[in-house]
Amino acid sequence: PSGGRSGHLVGFRSDHVPRVAGAPRLANARIRAAIPWAGAVVAVSGYEWFLVLHVLAAVVWAGGSFLLVVLGLIGLRARDTGRVLTVLRLSEPVEGPVFGAAALVLAGFGFALVERGNWGYDDFFIQYGIAAWAVSAAADLFYCSRAEKAIEELVEQHGPEAPAVAARARQYFLVGTLDALLLLSAVFVMTVKPFL
Q1: Which end of the chain, C or N, has fewer beta carbons within 10 A?
Q2: Torsions phi, psi of 40, nearest 5?
Q3: Residue 78: enclosing H or E segment and its boundaries?
Q4: What's the maximum distance between 2 C-alpha atoms anywhere in the chain?
Q5: Residue 85 CB neighbour total at 10 angstroms
Q6: Per-residue pLDDT in tens (0 to 9) along the chain, 196 residues
Q7: How far is CA 127 from the centre of its chain?
Q8: Which residues, 6 or more positions from 185, have their beta carbon under 8 angstroms from its beta carbon?
Q9: Coil, strand or helix: which one is 9?
């Protein structure tokens, strides 16, 4: 539907909810916000706003993790310890505040989506998403920050070119790679929703 000259919505009915195959029936389907954008009107439900925020948080967390791992692996492959240490030092202030906040937003809106939609905690994609979230959050919380500090201590004790520094950095980025792949697999499973 499009807006008329008088500014009201032509052909927009508050009781009409477009359905997409496989999408849950929404508890708040009649509550719609009309947003004029580039001459068109987009009707967005509360559920859809939650979904957008959930997906954006996943993009920040999974995409950011993947980017840091790729940059670190490029440095390791080039045997450029300086580049690897730069990535590690840049990741430290990002992981806690940015990735931590994204993880909490992701979980909060994920649970809200289950409650507001016709989903159940027995659905495989929800169980997989929760498990992937828990494993990744635990790895970030209990491994990454400690490993970064351990690498910095090795640099102070033996210098940046020491074999022990390179070995510990390889281990760190191996765990980071597995973590990023887990997050990306969760994005895939949450999108495709297998066994539904």
Answers
A1: C
A2: -115, 160
A3: none
A4: 74
A5: 19
A6: 444 344 443 443 434 444 444 555 544 444 445 555 544 446 678 889 999 999 999 999 999 999 999 999 999 999 999 999 999 999 888 888 899 999 999 999 999 999 998 899 999 999 999 999 999 999 988 998 899 999 999 999 999 999 999 999 999 999 999 999 999 999 999 999 998 7
A7: 16
A8: 132
A9: strand
For 148, the token pair is: 């970064």
Q: For strand 2-3 and strand 9-10, is the pairing parallel, antiparallel, or unpaired?
A: antiparallel
DSSP H or E segment with residue 130: helix 124-139
Which strand (E) or helix (H) includes residue 76? Answer: helix 64-77
Q: Which residues have a Cβ under 8 Å from the Cβ of 15 and sit 6 or more positions away?
A: 30
Return the amino acid letter for 34.
Answer: A
Alpha carbons 3 and 15: distance in angstroms, whole number: 18
Q: Which residues pair with 33 in a beta bridge?
A: 44
Question: Taking the model in full, what pTM does it have?
Answer: 0.75
Q: Which two tokens stand for residue 40?
A: 């068109």
* Torsion (CA) 63, 65, 67, 69 in degrees, nearest 10: -150
